[in-house]
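Troubleshooting log. The previous run stalled partway through. Resubmitting the same two chains, unchanged.
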Amino acid sequence: MSELDRLRHAMRVTERPGGAIDLAAVMRDGRRLRTRRRVAGAGVATLAAGLAGVVVAVVVGALPNDPGTVERPPPVAVAPAPPTDGPATPPDPSATMPPTTAARTEPPPSPLGEVIDSGVRHGADQRVYYLVRVSVPGEPRVSIGLAAGRRAPNGTLTTDILVNDVEGSDRSPGFHQIGYDEGGSAAPVPAFGYFVGPAHRITGTVDGRQVAARLARWSADKQVVIFWFDPADLAPGDRLDGITARDGSNRRL
Amino acid sequence: MGRGDAEFVEFARAASARLVHAAFLMTGDHHQAEDAAQTALVRTYASWSRIRDDDAYGYARRILVNHLVDGWRRPIREYPTEEVPEQRRGDVADEVATRRWLTAILGALSPRERAIIVLRYYFDLPEAQVARELAISVGTVKSTSSRALEKLRSTGPRTADNQEACR
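Second attempt completed without errors. Output:
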């Protein structure tokens, strides 16, 4: 038997019977994840249908002089319109949900302005960010959401995560939202968000470590600064403890 | 339980052992392997209505590999354990020796080499598919695979001899 044959044989005969997986926990967590993804999909659906419904928001200290501390509650808040001031209650994972068909029926995203190539690759796909139109019932000043998606070599866009405000104005100065990988995407999504203002540098803090974000200005409104964290610096899914923006004179915004 | 759920349970029961074992081969850590397989199954279940008619096992495997590859960039977590795998089934001497040989031989490889070896020779995937799943070029798969096999050849006999000497 050659070394390779022996290796193949060894890898197979040492397999143990299943049993270590908690299937009840798998299905419970899977339902929660599916709910979050469906809610994100609802944000996309409003693009075409303008339907009233639920929206997703990952809210960060949004004022320019806010100390910039990022809270650690569940990042996805589901709020029936109109949204309340406090954090909304996460959806009941045991709630009856309609069949998941969104992935096949969602229209392709229609980016507003230029699509931003992050430089991160998933095989042949590019990790890209783009703004899309959203509709939030009772919130006429919220009209854009930021999407993390993948662009295939043929130009096809696939949205992985969409985040948008649920109240106020999507152009108010400061941080608006941060999208984190919740495990629902086929490819890891680096943390991302946008800041409105003259930011030249954005730095996140995680476990006492400072991590610099990469920036790009939105082609349709140069005050909107889209940022994301290189997955080598901040693993997708890891949450920030704080975030700050500084202008060209290194003044904190 | 709906039809979809019943199908998923059947799928998970059939696939979980291989997923856990693949993760163990890639990490050398039973707890990490179980966590990774559980994560892969959670994400698979979340997408079940979309993928159950396609290649659900391939989907779960890709999630597993992505999750582990992502984990290479994170600080290593250590799990206290009272279980010493080599002593778990001490009455099965051959399996103990094989497992010990396998652990030693895979332990000599880098995480990427381990992943390539597992995808190529445990899952029997062609090089092009290994490249797609690890987001690397086919050339990298070929060269890394070749280097890993060279390490196996150089490590294998000596380790095997040691195993014989230990008996």
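Takeaways: The CA atoms of residues 196 and 213 of chain A lie 15 Å apart. The longest strand of chain A covers residues 112-122.
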